[in-house]
Protein backbone atom coordinates (compact mmCIF):
# COMPACT_ATOMS: atom_id res chain seq x y z
CA UNK A 1 0.00 0.00 0.00
CA UNK A 2 2.87 2.40 0.83
CA UNK A 3 4.44 1.66 -2.54
CA UNK A 4 1.18 2.50 -4.30
CA UNK A 5 0.86 5.79 -2.39
CA UNK A 6 4.47 6.76 -3.12
CA UNK A 7 4.02 5.94 -6.81
CA UNK A 8 0.86 8.04 -6.90
CA UNK A 9 2.64 10.98 -5.22
CA UNK A 10 5.47 10.74 -7.75
CA UNK A 11 2.95 10.67 -10.62
CA UNK A 12 0.81 13.53 -9.29
CA UNK A 13 3.73 15.85 -8.57
CA UNK A 14 5.42 15.41 -11.95
CA UNK A 15 5.46 18.52 -14.07
CA UNK A 16 3.54 16.94 -16.95
CA UNK A 17 0.49 16.21 -14.81
CA UNK A 18 0.47 19.71 -13.36
CA UNK A 19 0.89 21.24 -16.83
CA UNK A 20 -1.96 19.09 -18.10
CA UNK A 21 -4.20 20.18 -15.21
CA UNK A 22 -3.47 23.82 -15.92
CA UNK A 23 -4.24 23.22 -19.60
CA UNK A 24 -7.58 21.61 -18.77
CA UNK A 25 -8.56 24.50 -16.50
CA UNK A 26 -7.56 27.12 -19.08
CA UNK A 27 -9.29 25.10 -21.81
CA UNK A 28 -12.49 25.04 -19.78
CA UNK A 29 -12.40 28.80 -19.30
CA UNK A 30 -11.56 29.28 -22.99
CA UNK A 31 -14.56 27.11 -23.91
CA UNK A 32 -16.83 29.40 -21.89
CA UNK A 33 -15.46 32.45 -23.67
CA UNK A 34 -15.97 30.90 -27.10
CA UNK A 35 -19.47 29.70 -26.17
CA UNK A 36 -20.34 33.23 -25.07
CA UNK A 37 -18.93 34.60 -28.32
CA UNK A 38 -21.09 32.19 -30.32
CA UNK A 39 -24.27 32.50 -28.22
CA UNK A 40 -24.17 36.21 -27.43
CA UNK A 41 -22.55 37.77 -30.50
CA UNK A 42 -22.57 35.51 -33.56
CA UNK A 43 -25.87 33.64 -33.16
CA UNK A 44 -28.02 36.80 -32.76
CA UNK A 45 -26.65 38.01 -36.12
CA UNK A 46 -27.35 34.62 -37.72
CA UNK A 47 -30.82 34.63 -36.16
CA UNK A 48 -31.45 38.08 -37.60
CA UNK A 49 -30.35 36.92 -41.05
CA UNK A 50 -32.50 33.76 -40.95
CA UNK A 51 -35.52 35.57 -39.52
CA UNK A 52 -35.93 33.01 -36.73
CA UNK A 53 -36.73 34.20 -33.22
CA UNK A 54 -34.42 31.69 -31.55
CA UNK A 55 -31.89 29.95 -33.76
CA UNK A 56 -31.30 27.04 -31.38
CA UNK A 57 -35.01 26.17 -31.49
CA UNK A 58 -35.20 25.77 -35.26
CA UNK A 59 -36.60 22.35 -36.02
CA UNK A 60 -38.52 20.23 -38.47
CA UNK A 61 -41.58 18.56 -36.99
CA UNK A 62 -41.69 14.90 -38.05
CA UNK A 63 -44.74 13.91 -36.01
CA UNK A 64 -47.24 16.26 -34.46
CA UNK A 65 -48.28 15.58 -30.86
CA UNK A 66 -51.56 13.67 -30.75
CA UNK A 67 -53.82 13.14 -27.71
CA UNK A 68 -51.24 14.25 -25.17
CA UNK A 69 -48.34 12.25 -26.69
CA UNK A 70 -45.09 13.98 -27.46
CA UNK A 71 -44.28 14.97 -31.02
CA UNK A 72 -41.02 14.18 -32.79
CA UNK A 73 -38.80 16.97 -34.13
CA UNK A 74 -35.37 17.27 -35.71
CA UNK A 75 -33.62 20.05 -33.79
CA UNK A 76 -31.30 21.19 -36.58
CA UNK A 77 -30.88 24.69 -35.11
CA UNK A 78 -29.14 23.34 -32.03
CA UNK A 79 -26.94 21.17 -34.23
CA UNK A 80 -25.98 24.12 -36.45
CA UNK A 81 -25.16 26.20 -33.39
CA UNK A 82 -22.81 23.46 -32.14
CA UNK A 83 -21.18 23.21 -35.58
CA UNK A 84 -20.58 26.97 -35.64
CA UNK A 85 -19.21 26.76 -32.08
CA UNK A 86 -16.79 24.01 -33.15
CA UNK A 87 -15.64 25.90 -36.25
CA UNK A 88 -14.91 29.03 -34.22
CA UNK A 89 -12.96 27.05 -31.61
CA UNK A 90 -11.00 25.28 -34.37
CA UNK A 91 -10.24 28.60 -36.08
CA UNK A 92 -9.06 30.25 -32.87
CA UNK A 93 -6.85 27.27 -31.96
CA UNK A 94 -5.42 27.25 -35.50
CA UNK A 95 -4.59 30.95 -35.31
CA UNK A 96 -3.06 30.59 -31.84
CA UNK A 97 -0.87 27.67 -32.95
CA UNK A 98 0.17 29.59 -36.04
CA UNK A 99 1.26 32.53 -33.85
CA UNK A 100 3.10 30.23 -31.43
CA UNK A 101 4.98 28.55 -34.30
CA UNK A 102 5.89 31.96 -35.76
CA UNK A 103 7.14 33.26 -32.40
CA UNK A 104 9.06 30.04 -31.80
CA UNK A 105 10.76 30.19 -35.20
CA UNK A 106 11.72 33.85 -34.64
CA UNK A 107 13.16 32.96 -31.23
CA UNK A 108 15.16 30.07 -32.69
CA UNK A 109 16.48 32.33 -35.45
CA UNK A 110 17.61 34.90 -32.86
CA UNK A 111 19.26 32.18 -30.78
CA UNK A 112 21.19 30.90 -33.83
CA UNK A 113 22.36 34.43 -34.64
CA UNK A 114 23.43 34.95 -31.01
CA UNK A 115 25.35 31.67 -31.01
CA UNK A 116 27.03 32.59 -34.28
CA UNK A 117 28.13 35.95 -32.84
CA UNK A 118 29.44 34.32 -29.66
CA UNK A 119 31.44 31.65 -31.50
CA UNK A 120 33.09 34.04 -33.91
CA UNK A 121 33.99 33.09 -37.44
CA UNK A 122 33.80 29.45 -38.51
CA UNK A 123 36.86 27.48 -39.63
CA UNK A 124 35.75 27.81 -43.23
CA UNK A 125 35.47 31.58 -42.91
CA UNK A 126 38.96 31.78 -41.38
CA UNK A 127 40.44 29.65 -44.18
CA UNK A 128 38.82 31.88 -46.80
CA UNK A 129 40.25 34.93 -45.06
CA UNK A 130 43.74 33.36 -44.96
CA UNK A 131 43.49 32.41 -48.65
CA UNK A 132 42.51 35.97 -49.57
CA UNK A 133 45.43 37.37 -47.55
CA UNK A 134 47.87 34.99 -49.26
CA UNK A 135 46.56 36.03 -52.70
CA UNK A 136 47.29 39.67 -51.88
CA UNK A 137 50.97 38.93 -51.20
TrEMBL record:
Compartments (UniProt record): Cell membrane
Membrane association type: Multi-pass membrane protein
Alphabetized UniProt keyword annotations: Cell membrane, Ion channel, Ion transport, Membrane, Transmembrane, Transmembrane helix, Transport
Transmembrane segments: 20-38, 83-101
GO cellular component, one term: plasma membrane
InterPro entries: Mechanosensitive_channel_CS, MS_channel, MSC/AndL, MscL_channel
GO molecular function, one term: mechanosensitive monoatomic ion channel activity
Similarity comment: family membership: Belongs to the MscL family.
Job of this protein: Channel that opens in response to stretch forces in the membrane lipid bilayer. May participate in the regulation of osmotic pressure changes within the cell.
PANTHER family reported in the protein's UniProt record: LARGE-CONDUCTANCE MECHANOSENSITIVE CHANNEL, MECHANOSENSITIVE CHANNEL MSCL
Quaternary structure note: Homopentamer.
Protein known as: Large-conductance mechanosensitive channel
Source organism per UniProt: Coprobacillus cateniformis
